Every structure is written in structure tokens, then in C-alpha cells.
Protein 1
Amino acid sequence: MRFWKSEPLLAILAATALLRILVIVLGWQGLRDDPDAYDRIAQAMARTGTLGVAAEDGSVVPTAFRPPLYPALLAIIRSVMITVDDDFLDPASERGQIVLRQAVAGLHLLLGLLTVAATYFTARRWLTTPPQTLLAGASDAPTASAGPRAIRATVAAAALAATFVAIDPILLQSSVRLMTETLATALAAVALSLWPRLTDSLAAPTGNSQRAGRIRQLAFQALWLGVVLGLAYLCRPTFIVWSFLLIAYLIGWAVTARWRSQEATPSPARILAAAGVLAWVAGTILGGWTYRNLRQLGHPIWATSHGGYTLLLGNNPLFFDYVRGGPIGVAWDPSEFFRAWRQRELADPRQRPFWTDGPDSAAAIAANPRWAEEQPPPYDEVAQDRLAYETAKAAILADFSGFLKSCVWRWTRLLGPMPQQPTPQAPPPQSPVTTPNTVPAAPPGTPTGRLPSAAIAAVTIYYSGFTLLVLAGIWRIGRRLLTPRYAAAVALLLSLFAVHTFYWSNLRMRAPAVPALAIFAAIGLCRSRLPDETAPSSSTDKSNSPDTAI
């Protein structure tokens, strides 16, 4: 019993597994849907090894419409199924669909357990004394030397953070969807757990006899963190912004450390070396994906050919009209948007009459009489992506006040507590890769069925309380948010906030930040003491200062 009291992680993992299994059983049909065409791409990969989609003649057309990691995992599952039984060659077979859903459910279950465990260990490290504080002689942080009470408080806070992740409604819903949220959140949680290990090692004092071993340790820590961040980028390209922010933070830390004279000051050379390893790994993975797209598609696409559509979805005249007067709590009905966008061969969508009067109207056609000659080929996904970008930019410039209101709307959807009720008129989602230039029939993450009012109320109440705890935790941490230990969490939140200021946003988009938010919430609720750190911008060691203790 002592083990379970001091290390409750196994109990939390067991409860998480039972809860996820229950959710999978209740939401089993959700694993059959393929709203973002990841399984369609996986079928082609399993059969030919090419990241692409099957054309009408049976050939596989390479695509960069979706990031490669999640469909690659699905392709591995399908390849194993085909190896075991040739009957699984037919992707439409009922038996094959059942086995695939079981395998994906198992994959999502394991990823969910990994997310919970990584959150627990990250919280434990956040709440233990960093090496530079030990050097300064602080003794009030929750370490073994501080006594069992501090240790129990730290374990309780870490267990609470892990529990928040285990019961999070967004993550539970995502576990029964063929979408990237479960994988992206797991990778984000692992990266969050690796970052403080690296920064603690960088800040720890090193004697001459330990130098060689410490350099190897730092190299491996930076390498593993870079690999995880690279995989996260291949899962969701927006993670590259997170990587850049972390590299920039390390460089800034090194620059400020260069001007210090204290004995405990971290070595700027070591910090820059760690930043260099991260940049090298990130650049290698980014370059590999970009080179693949250059060879297969003829264009150096570093993200996906889906970004223009995602930008346009949240920045078009029809959506701007919605944010000005749409009903509160009811999702935008994109039916009219999709009807217009699918008729873009009739008129130039960059011209406002296309949206206000209709694609087949005389005003829309007259706005650009040469559109028939200028429009991009319908099967050129890169050209279609560029057109979507240009259309979104034209809409923003034509209605900048509408754009600003839509930015506020995206912030509220990303950070708000209330799920939106889907409109009754919205059609069910369709595959976005039936051909490279088609688009889904509902915004990403929009549920297809009406949600019970009680479910919306319960989720809203939960996230309202959770948000208050997050704010309380951030308040308790205070200016320590600028210190290396918390930098990865802050950078992750900033990257998501920055990206989804412009691109389509909803509750689902904040899934990767749930582990970090859960730790903040646990800190806000628990009374475990926080270790004092010295911020990179500080010029003196304040670990013993009474006005920084909580």
C-alpha cells in the first residue's frame, strides 16, 4: 500500500485505461468515419508505399494535403493486417474494417496512457528543486531532503495533473476519431517532459572530471527532444513554430548568461550547443519532408498543401458575416461556403461578387472575364492551395474589420469553455482527398450529430472551473514563467495562440496544450510549494529571496 500512496501513477493509468475503453466502446462508430481522409491515404501507402490517394483509374497520386506521420502509422497497421491475412487487401471488407478499428483503438489507448504518464513525470520535475537552486542552498523545495510532507504534496499535484489529462473531454472525444489529436497530444506531452531535463542539465554545475560525461548526456537529451519535436511537426506542421520558439529561447538564454559573472551561471557554450542540436534535427526533418514534396509534387512544400484552405475557411466573406451576427453557442453552417467554393471554376473566388452574388452570377463572372484562362488546373493541389491563400488574403484586405472580429472569434473558440452546437443544416463531413482539390464539407473538428444540452452544460462547467485553476496556477508561478523550466509550456501556448489567430480554430485545436494546462491547473489547486529558479534575464540568484517563495 505504501507504493500506491507514494507513486499513484499505476492506479491513474489503470483508471485511464478503463475510462478510455469505455469511451471507445460507446463511441465505436466514430472510428469508422474518415473525415480527414487519413485512412484513405493510409490505404494507398500500405499498398504502394506512396503518400498519396487512389485515382479513379487505380493509380496513386502523391499528395501533401495531410502531414505524413498519422497516415503512416495507419499504413503500418494495414500492412501488418495484409501480411497476416490476404483478405485484408480489400479495404472495404467488413472484417478488415473491424480489425482496423480495433487496432486503431489500441493505438489511441496506448498514446493516451503515454500522455498521462508523461504529464505526471513533467509535473514531478516542475515541482522539484532545479540544480541551480540546490547549489544556492535552498531547502524549502519538495525534494527528499525536504521531508515526506513535501514529497507527498508534489506527488499529489502530479497525480492531479495526470488525472486532469485522463478525464479531459477533448482528449476523450479524440480517442474515437481518426484524427491527429491523440498522437499530437502524446508527442507534445513527451516533449514537455524532455525539455526540463535538458534545461536542468544545462543549468547544473559541472566539474572538470564530469565534463565529458555531461556533454554526452546533453547531446543525447537535445537529440531526443529534437526527434520528438520533429515527429510532432510531421504530425502537425504548426509544431514547427514551437520548435523555433524553443531554439530562440535557448539562444536568448545563452546570450544573457554570457554577461553574468556568478559561479553558478550556466555555460553559454553548452546552451548554444543544445540549441544547435535542436536546430540541426528540426532542419533535417523539415528538409526531408520539403525535399520529398519537391521531388513528388514539384514544389518545396514545407508544411502541407492544406494550409490555404484552412486559412480561407476562417477568413471569407460568408464567415465574416457569421461572426458579426451569428447565434451564440451555435457553430457556423459552412454549406453555402462549400457550394460556392466547389463552383470556383465558374468565376474568380478572389473577387467579392463571387461570394455576395454567387459564383454563377453575372457580377461574379464580369469581375474577372479572363478567369477561364487564368484559373489553376483542378487536379493541381499546390495551385489550388495557392488560390485558397490568395482568396483569403483578398477577403481580409476587403473587410479588415471582419477579419479582426474573426480573430477574436478564433481566440474564444480556442480558449473558451463551451462546445458549439452543430447547425442542423450542416451536411456530414466528406473526404477532403477524393481528388486533390476537393475540400471537407464541414469545418475541421465539427461534430456531425446534435449534442445533448446536458453534455454541453457539463463540459462548459468543467472547462470553466478548469480555466480558473489554470489561471490560478499561472498566477502562483508568476514571473517564474520566464525561467527555463516552464519555457516549453509557455512557448507551446504561444505557438498555438499565434497560429490559430489566423487559421481555423475550435476546441479541438488546443488538444496538444492540455498536458501543460493540466499541470498549471494542478499547481493552482494544490498547495505544494514551487521551487525557486533564476530567470535567464535575471542578473542575480534569488533562490533564497522570500518575496519569490509561494
Protein 2
Amino acid sequence: METLPTEVFNEILDQFEPGIHELPRANPWARPRPYKPEHIDSKQHFARLRLVSKRFSELAAPYLFRSIGLRFNMKSFGRLERLAEQPKLAKHVKKFVYLMPYLYVEGTQDFETFRADRAIRLPSKLRQIMFEDREPFYYPTVYKEQQDVMRGSYDLFVLKKAMKSFTSLQQIQLLSVMVHKDIVLRNLASSFDSWEFIDCRWIPACSHAVETLLLAILYGKPPVNSFSSPTLSPQSLLAISSGMQQSALASFKQLSHLEVTFDERPDRSYLDTATTHLRGHISPISEFFRQFCMCTANLSTLYLRFTPGLPVRLPLEDVFHNTVWNKLRILGIGSWMLKAEEIIAIAKRHQGTLKGIRLSEVYLADGNRWRDVVIALKTHMKKLDWVSFQDIGYEREYVRKMSYIETYSDTSSEEDEDDSLEMDAESISSSSSHIHPSQAGDDVIYGNVFTSSEDTGISSDTSSLGNGANASMGSFGEKEECEFEEDLEDYGLTVSQAQRKHWERWIVGKNVNTGEPYTRPL
């Protein structure tokens, strides 16, 4: 092995941990998850490999440190600080994942009062989960640790240090993470009009994460070109001072990939659909996006959606402001109530550059037809390589569906629409450079790097790419071609899966999965 050429050795290591590859003309949401047996922990293998010899240590380092995760605790920040102090290792970091928990805030009543308060009338099973099973003092312990991390701006200090040392950093991803006890407390507090005890909230957590990340990026100036977050709170943007907003917008000029899901629901009304109008927030958010659109001239991939399952009724140009991105190759819009002309207009503005369009959970207003959108895309978008229609439909159809749910459902799911991801946060532990995955336990991380086609909007043609245990690319065994006797006419009432598949193929004139020409008429 010592005499093996470096190129061959890297090919072998690539089989364990594929790197970050840019595919500007392909559907980035249709990449299959690399197959890796569950019992194989490539990080541990790379860590052990580095102990064999100096050459192996140098060869394995890029694979071990190119993607790291940070949890919001003293142990994880300590590891990140030690990594930042080792330039030979820090230079390999290309992707940084920030796993931000809900921030705990104290109430007017202390924890012991909360624990002993029988007026809440907790069921015995719920009381056991919160105060007896596994870490009976979990809530005050987590609150204290979060305060320790933020005391003296220690988290900001470490983030600045890291961003300064990550000279090859390309991607930043912000995820929200909760354990079961967090979910139980959040749901319990939401059921009371007035909650006086310890609480966990996402809006202040997101605001803190966004602000510290921006300050660290402005200080370290890493060459970041990609940012993604599946649970970004719009209120977190409004909480940033105008001066910092201007500085942050200037740093966005280098972004080429932006993928954001805005969760505009308030902390104490988690399932309140009335807030999907963004009342009271649209003016400042619209102004922020106007400035953002002016600064992000280098965007090649843009995907913006709102809370899955709760589409917003918001004019498209209140966000995009008729902006033209000259380098835009992939455009995605999700969880939106729109008119056909709005979709057609933004697509036509980029007809000379767009290679892919992704529409997920987009519902057309009454009086509009998807047929008009499909014909316009076929007519004007000659450079399209793929189109993805996922869960598209009509406003009337969505309203009817929600009315049915409200009528016949007694409970609402406490899980987010996105697939949850059990993810090991890679972080450095000591000068020996060993990696020890964090004990995720029953963490729920909202927003999966490798999400399934059910919630990412992967087109029908690309959803079957890849195979193996970890492919997670949607259903298999579907008929490759639509049955010709099937009625695919658009009546403006509902959109079936067969219609979506038919339209996707008709627009580009081929089956994207097989490459075969598609000749069935509209």
C-alpha cells in the first residue's frame, strides 16, 4: 500500500467518501445518496488510517476534514477551535454544517416550580418523559450550557477563528435540531395561552445563528459560494441591524448556490396557517430581498420555498423584483400560491440561461391553468435539460384538502414535512486528529442533505436514479411511460402524478431518466 500511486489511492478513498462535485447542468436534487453499508463508518476508518504512517495521514486528511459539523455545546465548539488552530487540517474543510438547537429561555417561574406544579396536569407518561427518563434535569442543564456557549460571545470568537482558517470553504448549511424532550416541551407550551416556565424557541436561535455566522464570514472572508438552510426564520433577517445587513449583502456577491426554506410560523403558533400571508413582515422582507437580488449577480442555482404544506399567497415579484440573473442555470420555487403568468414571466426572463426548473407544492390561483405554463415553457425555454413538477396543483384543490384535514383530523403531526436526518457531526477531538461522532441520540435534524424525492421535488424521471440501501430516491417499479389511453387533459381541478410526468417529458422532449425521445402530444 505504501508504494501505491497517490491517484490510485485517492480513487479507493473516494469509494468510501465521495467528494463535493458541482453538476451545473444536472438536477442537484436528483443525485442519489452514495451506497454505504450501515455498519461502515468512513470517518473512523480515515482517522485510523492517519495513524499508519505520515503519508497515509496526509492522504486521509482531506477526506476526514472536508465536511464538518458543529453542535451548539462547549465540547463541539472546543473541537472546532482546536481544528481552526491547525492550518494544515483546516485547509481541507470545504463544507460546514451548523446544527443549531432551539434556544432555551427562562420563564417567570423556576424549573423546580415547573417540575412540581400539578396545575399543569401532565399525564404520567409525559411527566416521566420530561422529568424522569434519561436526564431528569435535561432542561436546566441544556439552558445552562447554551448560556455558557454564548457567555462572552465565545461561540462568535470560535466561529471567527474557524472562518479565518477555512481557506477552502465552499458550502455553509444551517440546520435546526431537536431531541424528543425539546419537542415535548414545545408542544406542551404551545397548548397554553400563557406559559410561565422554561421554554425553547427557534426564532431567537435562528437569529443568533444567522448573526454570528454573518459576523464570522465578514471577519474571515472564506471563499463560500453556497448557502442552504431548510428552516430559516424570516424574523431572523429582520432582527439583523441595517448596518450589518449592508455588510452581509456585500459578502453575498460571491454566492453561486442559494437554497433556502423560509419557516415564517411564530414559535408559539407552530401550526397556525393564518400566518402564511406573512402579515406585518412582507414590507421589510421584500426590501431585504430587493437589495439581495441586486447583490447576487453570480447566482447559478436558486431555490426558494416557504413552509412545506403551508403555501404562501405572496406575489412572486414582491420577492424577486423582476431581477435577471445572467448566470442562473437552475431555478426552484416551492410552497407558493401563484398565477400562471408569474411563473411564465420569471422563466422567460432567464430563457437564455436556464437548464432546469423545479416547482414543488406550487398551486395556481383560480382561473389559471397548468397547461398554459407547460406550453409557455415548451415554447420559450429551448435550453431546458430537465423540469421537475412535485406536488403541484390548484388553489381550490389545496383549500379542499385542508378543509378535509381540519374536519376529520383531531391531531396534527409534530414532525416537519422534511425528512429527518440522523447525522453524525464530524468534529476534531484532540491533537491526535481523531474524529468522534457526536452522540445524536434521538436528535431530529430538520432538512436532509440527502432527502427523498417525496419532499425535494425530484422529477418523476429522475426519482429512480441510483439504487442500493441508501439511495432514498423515491418509489421504484413505476411504469416508465404514461399509458396512452390515460386521460391527461388539464381541467383546472387537480393534477395527477401521470400528468406531472407527462408534462415534464413533453417540455424537454425526452425521458430524462433514459434519454429516449418523448413523442406523445400534449
Protein 3
Amino acid sequence: MSLNVMKILLQIRSFVESKRAISMANAFSGGVFLSLAFGHMMPHATLGFEESGLPANVPYFLTLSGYMLIFFVEKVAFDAHNIMHEGDGHGQQQHGGGKAVADGSSVAAVAAGGGEGGVAAGGNSGRSAIILLLALGVHALMETMALGLSSNRVSAGLLAMSIGLHQPAESLALLVSFLKSGLSERQVIKYLSIFSCLGPAGLGLGIAISEFAGKLADAVMVAMAAGTFIYVGATEVIAEEFESPHDKWKKFSALTAGIVIIAYVTHWAESLEHMA
């Protein structure tokens, strides 16, 4: 009995520590997303529209359209935030890991029942989990499409880093939602496989647009992708991470570091590009 209790406590401790690390990485990625959107993607889109002889304010409205698209998908059509936090139990919400929220008892329940594909701890329905999959899927598609639209290796590397830092929080939220939904193990694997395929699909779509659709189409998609990045950085990451009273100074430092480092690297990369 005592060994089982120790095992559960170690699982909870490991979960909390991993959530803290994910939280810091998520805050840093928020700064990366914002810095890339305002310092690289929007100027790139504006230049593309100016070269095409179109008004310079059009890309800003397209950026706003990209923001509104993701806002509609996540907050209106599917309400992904509430689905993520359904059934957290006892009302003790803990946002340190970005989105996957659980107290000690629900963590233990997920760990105990996840392998059998059924956890009734939160009472989430399979429908809610699938809705969350759709919302995060659109999200992932837009993010990786921006990666495919990258104009050089440095910007592609920065985008890949920002997505890589942000993705674990979304994947963890989706996994916990599936484990709580009562879906079978086979169904969970199937839906997670679908989710994992959306990233490469978005990347391929972005590359195709960049290669074959011309500069104006490229500028349009970059402007809309910038709106997605602003949503992720400002509305999603900052709102989620700073709801919790824990580690606010550390999170703010990580957020600021993401902005400053990416701004410097972007400026350095553009200087090299102009010199070449």
C-alpha cells in the first residue's frame, strides 16, 4: 500500500515539474510568436503588397482576418478553452502547464486509467475530445503553413523553434482530454495520429503556395499566418500562463526573452540577407 502511495506521489511530482518546464517554454514561445509576427512576417507581407502595387494597409486587415479566424474556431465555434478545462474536479484549476489542467486526484486517475482507454475522472465526452481535436488541428495547420512559407533558413528555423516549444502544451491538453473522454485506446491512437499528420500537411501546403502561387499569394498567406501567431502569443499563451499566480516573474522573463532574442536574430538575419 505504502509503495503504491509513493508511486502515485512520484507521478504527481513528476507531472508538476514537467508542467512547470512546459509552462516556461510556453511563455518563451509566446514571445517568439509575437516577435516573429510583428518583426518579420507582417513587414514581409507589407513588402509583398507594395511590390504588387496594392495598398499597404491591406496586409494589416488580412492579419486581423487571420486572428479572427483562429479566434472564431477556438472560442466561438468549438470553445476549445472550456473543453480543455472540463471536469477538472473540485474546481481546483491549475494553469501552469499551459492548457492541460489537473489536480493531484485527476492526475492519478488519468495515470491509472489511461492505458485502458477509459478515464471517467472528468466526465468529458468523446464528442468534446473530437471538437478539441478539430480546433487544435486548424491551429496546427496554420502554424506549420507559416513554416512552409518561410523565405530563408533562419526564419524557418525560428518558426520551427517557436512551434516546437508551443506544441507540447497543446499535445498534452489533447492527450489528457482523450484520456478523460472514455474513448478506447485504438480510438485515441487514431485521433492522435490524425493530429500528428496535420503539421506535415500544413507544411506542404505552405511550400506549395510559396513555390507555385506567386508573390502576392505568398504575401496574403503570410499576413494571415501572422494573425494566427499574434493570437497564439497574445490571446492564448499570455492569457493561459498568467492566469496562475505561480512563477509570474519567471514567466514574464521567459516571454520577454523570447521577444528580445528573436528580434535580435531576425534583425541579424535580415542584415545578412541584404549584404548577400
Protein 4
Amino acid sequence: MAESYKIDLIEAGGVNEVARKLEKVVGVESAKPGYLDVMTLLSLPDHLRKTATAVCKLGRATADEVADETGRTRAMESAYLNQLVRMGYLKKERVGRKVYFYVEV
């Protein structure tokens, strides 16, 4: 993507700088807030990126299912999933006693 917008990654100095340069070219208004695209995933801390990637792979999942995918505890994944919900990247829905997390498209 950087090549198509004539952005030199070495010159850019990191992911945040690349994102700022892309915003100038593409425009911030074209991106939906809370949308999980590649640049957003790259900007997330490693622990949240792993959780968000697992939800993207599974589609709609509980904290238990995400924990099975990531190899971490359910409690830890529940905290990370709720953090991603507060950040606006995931949605959650309660069905009976289960809470499902998903990416709204």
C-alpha cells in the first residue's frame, strides 16, 4: 500500500508516521471509526492485536472460544475483548448467559 501512495517506509520512521502520511493522501473521512483494517490492527498493542485477530478469524465468538484460539485464559481474553469493545473495534451481544463478540461490518 505504501508503494502505491509513494511513501517510503524507511523514510517514514514507523507505523504511526506511515498512518499519518496515508491519512494525508486517503483522507481521514474515508475511514469508518472503529473499523478494524490492517493499519488499525498494526497500531494495536500486541496483546490486543492477537485477540482482535482471533475474533476476525472466528467471526462471532465467546471469550472461551477466543481463549482457546490464543492459548490465554478466559478471564484475560474477556478483559481484552471488553477493552476492544470500549475502543469501538468490536461489538458484543448477550444471548442467554453467553456473551458473543464480533466485528461489525
